Amino acid sequence: MTPPPDSWRAALEPVLASPQSQALAAFLRAEEAAGKHIYPPRRLRLAALEMTPLDSVKVVILGQDPYHAPGQAHGLSFSVPDGVRPPPSLRNITKELASDLGLPIPANGNLSAWARQGVLLLNNALTVEEARPGSHAGKGWEAITDACVAAVAARAEPCVFMLWGAHAAAKAARIAGLDAHLVLTAPHPSPLSAHRGFLGCRHFSQANAFLEKTGRGAIDWRVT
Q1: 55, 65, 82, 179: which is the annotated catalytic residue?
Q2: pLDDT tens figures, 121-140
Q3: Is 65 a catalytic residue?
């Protein structure tokens, strides 16, 4: 497995040395050896950690697992590379941005600009098999991403946790020390649940108000 970036190394080395993580690495090798298409590509699986160092995290947005169609997943939850049509969940996110902050709905779906500002775009599982959503859930990624969330929550700097859907909420319930942070919950932005409370949740304006109040500086939520 690819070593974590330096800023995350101390937080992740213990869990990466565990039998569970070794089993995950063996599982991924076996799946690839069997000719299965795994997304995102190996070089992008830790892209969220590479683009957002631990000491720069202001906001954590948790997804379930990567997009499972060719060319969509690039290591950032809910994001797609330039030139790829935004999937339905991402389109609902940009609808909420338009409603909450008055931002235009973009044709682009690359959220890298958020990651560079301190928005950790983390999935619960960091890989998936093509056309099989949830296929790598329970294979060992959860211990690693739990450790990422715990490392952010343990920092003194206030942070916003945007928890969309049951998987994200369950992860937060296992993390102590969230009292100093702002925890925002809503249904998942997928078409199946967005109209049950994600649309209209106003998480982006609430996040910026909290970040400004605590002196951390607002996020520019434009998708460019």
Answers
A1: 65
A2: 999 999 999 999 999 999 99
A3: yes
